[in-house]
Amino acid sequence: MAQLGMKEVDYIERIIPGLAWIRYFILTLGERDGIHTALRLIKEADSLENWEEHSKFSFQSSYRRLTEEHWQKLRVRLKEAGIGQLCQDSLGPFIRCYPTDNAFSQLVDLKVEPPSDGDIQLARDVVSSLFDRRAKPACAVQSVVLVAELEAGTVKFTSAVRFPDLNAIFSDFESEASQHACSHVRTQTNFMFMFAEKEIGDAWARYFWNRGKELVPIKSEIEISSETYSNDAHPLLKFGIDYEKYAWGIVDEIWSKLPIDIFEDECFAVLGALLARQCNLATTLASNFFLWDFRAGPLFLRPMTDAYITAAWILKDPNERARKFILHGLGQEKLRIEHFKSILDKHEPEDRKMFEKVIEAREGWLNSQHFSFLQHVDIGSWSGISTREMAEQAGCIDLYNFAYTPWSFSAHGTWNHIGAFDAVRSREPLHKHMWQPFNGDFGRHPDVIFNATKYFDKLCRLLVETFGLKLTVPLPRQWVRPRLAQLFKEMPQSVEKNKAGDE
Fold first, then answer.
1. Is the pLDDT of residue 308 over 60?
2. Residues 136/169, Cβ–Cβ less than 8 Å
3. Terminal CA-to-CA distance of the chain, rounded, Å?
4. Which of 36, 56, 246, 350 is the most buried (most CB within 10 A)?
C-alpha cells in the first residue's frame, strides 16, 4: 500500500484526539450505556440533513461543520431522546480540559471555568486507556466507528467476508471471534479517518496534544543524585559528585524550558536523548579518573562529537530529520531482532528461552513506537549522507576535522592511534627495532574531561541559542574551569595528607 502512495495513519498522534470523546462517555456512563449514547449522538448529528458526503461524525473534528441552527436542532433531539443530560455529564470534563475550538462546547451549556483536579485525572485516564490500540478500551472506542457506519448503511459486507461478531469484543475479548472483530474495527477506523482526513485536518490533534502540557507541566524523569561527602573526602570524589549533580541539573533545566511541541515531538525526543547522552558520557568520565587518558578517553569523546554533529544537522530541518533518525534506528532494531531469531534453533533449550525473552523485550520496545511488521529497514546511513557532509551542512566542519576524526582513530583502532599508545619500538637492533605490544602508563590528563565538558557545553549552547532559552545556571565550560582549578589545588594537599597519615 505504501508503494501505491498511501500514507500510514499515526493512531496515537491523529486518531486518539479524534475519538477521545467517546471514551469520556464510556468512563462516565459505563461501557454499554456509554457506547449506545455516543452512537445515538452520532446518528442524530448525521440525520440533521442530507450531507453531500458522509460526515464521519465519529471523529470530533467533523462536528465543526455544524452551524448554530444544526446545534439547536441537535440539542432538542438529544433532549427528546432522553440523553441530553447524559451528554452534558459526559462531555463537561472534556470541554473544561480542552476548551479551545472544542466543537462540543456548542452542545453543552457550561460556565467558562478551569478544569478541576478530577477533570485532569479523568483526561489522564481517557488518554492512557487509548494508547494501546489493540487493548480492549481502545478497541471498544474504535468499534463505535464501524457500528456507526453500519447503521448509516455506508459500510456493507459481501458474502465472501465473514461478518465480525462485535459483541465478542465485550463478552470475551481474548476469543478468536473478538480478535477477528477487532481487526475489522481497527481497519475501518483507519479507512474512515483517511476518507475524512481533509475535513478533519490536524488543528484539533495539534491543540489536543499541546494542551496536555498546560494541564500538566512537562517534567523530566531525571533523578539528580542526593549523594553527599565529608570535607575530608578525596578531591576526585568531590569533583565527580559535584559534576554529576551540576550536569544533570542543567539538562533538567534545559528540558523544562524547551518549547516542546507534543504533537510533533520527534525533534524534541531526539534532542533530549542526545543531550542526555552527552551528559551520561561526560559524567562517567568525570567520576572515573582512570579514564582521563588517551586510550580510554577518546572512546567517550568520539561519540560526544558525533552527538553534537547529529543534533546540529537535525536542527536544520527538525521534524523531518528527527523522524528519519528515529525510523532508521527502529529499522536497525528490527534487523537486530531478526538476527536473534535466525539463531534460535542453534541453541540448547535453556539458552533458547533466554534469547526468546530478549526478543520479546526488544520487540515490545520497538512495537511501543512503531509496529515491527510496518517498519522499513534501511542498512545505509540514517541521514543519507556522510558525517562529514552533515558537519559541513550544519556549520561545524572544524569539529569534524579536529575532534571527530582524531577521536575516531582511537574508536576504530587505526595505526596512527594504536601505534602511538599501544605499541613501542623494541630496543634490540637485531630485531629491527620492531613494534611490540606496550602497556606503559601515559598518565592522566585534564584535557580529557575538559574536552568532554566542551562537547557537552556545545550541545547545551546550541539548544540555548536555537530556542532562546534563559538559564539560571552557568553553561558547562563556565562551571568546570573554576572547579578544575579547585581540584588541582586540592590534589597535592590530599597527597601530602595521605603521606602524613601513612607515616
1. yes
2. yes
3. 80
4. 56
Cβ atoms of 25 and 62 within 8 Å: the answer is no
* Residue 38 phi, psi (nearest 5): -65, -40
Provide CB contacts within 8 A for 315, sequence distance 6+: 271, 394, 462, 466
How many residues belong to the chain? 503
Give residue limits of the domains in the chain.
2-212, 232-346+376-492
176/355 Cα distance (integer angstroms): 28
Tell me how far apart the alpha carbons of residues 392 and 390 are, in angstroms, rounded to a whole number.
Answer: 5
The answer to whether residues 295 and 442 touch, using CB atoms and an 8 Å cutoff, is yes
Q: Taking the alpha carbons of 83, 86, 90, 91 in that order, is the dihedral positive or negative?
A: positive
- In angstroms, the CA 285 to CA 240 distance is 9
DSSP summary character for residue 253: H
Cell for 184?
A: 475489522
Q: What is the mean pLDDT of residues 434-449?
A: 90
Please tell me the distance from the alpha carbon of residue 264 to that of residue 323, in angstroms, as a whole number: 9
pLDDT range class, residue 498, cuts 50, 70, 90: low
Nine cell digits for residue 381: 546511513
Nearest to 203 by CA among 66, 343, 102, 282: 102
Cα torsion at 45, 49, 50, 52 (round to 10°)? -80
For residue range 240-289, list pLDDT tens digits in order. 999 999 999 999 999 999 999 999 999 999 999 999 999 999 999 999 99
Which backbone phi and psi does 284 adopt, to 5 degrees?
-65, -45
d(CA 25, CA 270): 36
Q: What is the DSSP letter of 219?
A: -
- On the CB side of 73, CA atoms within 13 Å amount to 11
